[in-house]
Specification:
By secondary structure, this protein is mainly beta. The strands form five sheets. It has an eight-stranded antiparallel β-barrel with strand order 1-2-3-6-7-10-11-16. The protein has a two-stranded antiparallel ribbon with strand order 4-5. Strands 8-9 form a two-stranded antiparallel sheet. Strand 10 and strand 11 form a beta hairpin. The termini are far apart.
């Protein structure tokens, strides 16, 4: 009897499986299409201008930028500004009592004026909302540097002259220019500069936007910029004066002129399109 009941149960289950179909979902939902991203041409904008602040290893700088739309997601750009230029060997020390800052072995100050022509292209336009416009960019062009004395090198020996007093202590015989001194003795040097960057344009409207950029920027001067002291004394004589040359009449070389100046960059700009 048990065998007969078991066979009957199997038969009923098999018959039910043949005559019943299980449906998980009767109708497929429609695919939701993402809206087309807003672009400057679609909103009636073709020109852009912005100004901002630059922070890099050279210090602070200012920057202005103009761009022209050449495709829905692409612009050609021109930017210029002013930045400091520092030798990689520079170390700044500050007097605890007076607050005076001194850079040992610094010989000249330099400021750079970049002229950059480049491209800016928005990426992931369909995947990211229009109020968070991610872009990449690259630019290059000529640059000019203004170099003027940091040390008032009156004897023109290529270093800040110190003397030894009777107690054996060194004291400076030449002073250091303040920020606004020595400009009349400055020179202009032409070079090359470039940058690569990634950034974000914030704002629901193209008419007014805030931009944050992260990138790498460089200067290159073929002739080099002599920011640090090119020479140093061999020692001091019995009168406490520096020994500038050896027996052959040759000065003691110290720092070479630096040709390449590279730095990471963070930039914050404010502007808009029209």
């Amino acid at each position: 009897m048990k065998i007969k009941l078991f066979i009957l149960s199997i038969a009923l289950l098999a018959w039910g499986g043949i005559n019943n179909t299980i449906y998980a979902q009767l109708v497929e939902p429609d695919v939701i299409q993402l809206p087309e991203p807003k672009t400057p041409p679609s909103e009636g904008f073709y020109n852009s201008f912005s100004a901002g602040v630059v922070l890099n290893n050279f210090g602070f700088g200012i920057d202005v930028n103009y761009s022209r739309v050449i495709a829905p997601l692409t612009q050609i750009t021109f930017q210029t500004g002013i930045t400091g230029i520092r030798d990689v060997s520079e170390l700044t020390f500050q007097n605890f009592f007076t607050g005076q800052k001194i850079v040992p072995n610094k010989y000249k100050r330099a400021f750079g004026f970049p002229f950059l022509f480049g491209l800016k292209h928005r990426i992931f336009a369909r995947q990211i909302d229009d109020n968070f416009r991610l872009f990449v960019g690259a630019a290059a062009g000529p640059a000019v540097a203004f170099v003027y004395p940091y040390v008032r090198d009156g004897d023109e020996n290529g270093f800040r002259t110190f003397r030894v007093d009777p107690r054996g202590f060194l004291y400076p015989a030449e002073s250091v220019n303040d920020f606004f001194s020595g400009w009349s003795e400055g020179d202009w040097e032409w070079g090359f500069n470039g940058e690569i960057k990634i950034g974000i344009d914030f704002g629901t409207s193209f008419a007014s936007q805030t931009t944050v950029e992260f990138g790498y920027f460089f200067y290159y001067f073929k002739q080099g910029l002599q920011i640090m002291e090119p020479y140093q004394p061999y020692g001091y004589d019995q009168l406490g004066n520096p020994i500038e040359v050896n027996e052959s009449g040759n000065p003691k070389t110290f720092y070479e002129a630096q040709k390449y100046f590279g730095t990471p960059v963070i930039k914050l700009s404010f502007g808009g399109m029209w």
